[in-house]
Write a structure and sequence with these properties.
Number of strands: 10
Order of helices and strands: EEEHEEHEHHHEHEHEEHHH
Bound molecules: adenosine-5'-triphosphate
Strand content: 15-25%
Number of helices: 10
CATH class: Alpha Beta
Low-confidence stretches: none
Largest sheet: 6 strands, mixed
Mean pLDDT: 93
Structural class: alpha/beta
Helix content: 40-55%
CATH superfamily: P-loop containing nucleotide triphosphate hydrolases
Length: 256
């Protein structure tokens, strides 16, 4: 299990995260939801030691320090990060890129697993084209496959559905359901409520750097019975939506 505890973190006092407790458990998907600027990426950056914070990071119940090269190497080996920024080597082809990724992991990559992912994400026809010539969605799929092929213990996935077409969103949802059962823990940070709804086992909702909801799916069911995730999200952020309803009412009146 990965456990991140942030007591406090701030960017020059302009934005702060407080009392964040995030767990990523094997065989589970943790969903991270929040408005633009809520702090989701900052939490992910904290996980990778890219921002300073007061608190601690545990891997399998042991506190680790990403400033120590040994701990950093261990954490990198255990974790794949699929970012929303497409930082691929554009001059390589997907095929060359996958080979490069295969050579960077210690365990042997299962070629059958890789070929099935290539087929599922419909990348066969682009395998020998330079990545620079691929569409945004195909670059994204190349990035997804390049990280999944490592079959890490944990996957941190930022905005998984950005740039994907409806077929691929459906395929990705099914792939993540299978991958989770391979004893892999997944953190999904997404704005796509319907995508997250079917997938999550744990949910964290953030507003302005603070936790509004941190619960398991079972706890959510007890508290919100059959409500959809959109309804739950709206209820959790009640103050915001009451404010928005007021403005929408005025907009409607102005239109009369
Ligand atoms: N390097 C930085 N220096 C100062 N402030 C920053 C920095 N990076 C982010 N912020 C601010 O911290 C807040 C949280 O940003 P963050 O990127 O974590 O939000 P987010 O929830 O990922 O948003 P989005 O959904 O828009 O990606 C924002 O107000 C942002 O402007």
């Amino acid at each position: 299990m990965i456990s991140l505890h942030i007591d406090r973190m701030s960017y020059n006092n302009t934005f702060k995260l407080e009392k964040i407790d995030l767990d990523i458990k094997k065989n589970e998907i943790t969903l991270l939801l929040g408005h633009n600027g809520a702090g989701k990426t900052t939490i992910i950056k904290s996980l990778f030691g890219l921002v300073e914070f007061k608190g601690n990071l545990k891997l399998n119940n042991r506190v680790i320090s990403l400033k120590k090269s040994q701990d950093l190497d261990l954490f990198k080996r255990e974790t794949s990060y699929i970012s929303d920024e497409l930082s691929l080597f554009d001059y390589l082809t997907p095929s060359e890129y996958f080979s490069l990724m295969k050579n960077t992991v210690t365990e042997k990559v299962d070629d059958k697993f890789l070929n099935l992912l290539i087929e599922l994400f419909e990348l066969e026809v682009y395998l020998d084209n330079p990545i620079s010539t691929l569409s945004h969605g195909n670059k994204k799929k190349t990035q997804i496959v390049s990280q999944l092929l490592k079959q890490p213990n944990y996957i941190i996935f930022d905005e998984p559905t950005n740039g994907l077409d409806p077929d691929m969103i459906i395929v990705l949802k099914k792939v993540l359901q299978i991958i989770k059962k391979m004893n892999i823990g997944i953190l999904l940070s997404t704005h796509n409520l319907s995508f997250g709804e079917e997938l999550y086992d744990q949910i964290m909702v953030l507003r302005d750097g603070k936790i509004k909801l941190n619960a398991s799916k079972e706890q959510v069911k007890v508290q919100y019975s059959n409500h959809t995730l959109e309804e739950i999200y709206t209820k959790v952020n009640k103050d915001y939506y009451t404010h928005i309803e007021g403005i929408l009412h005025e907009l409607n009146q102005a239109n009369d």
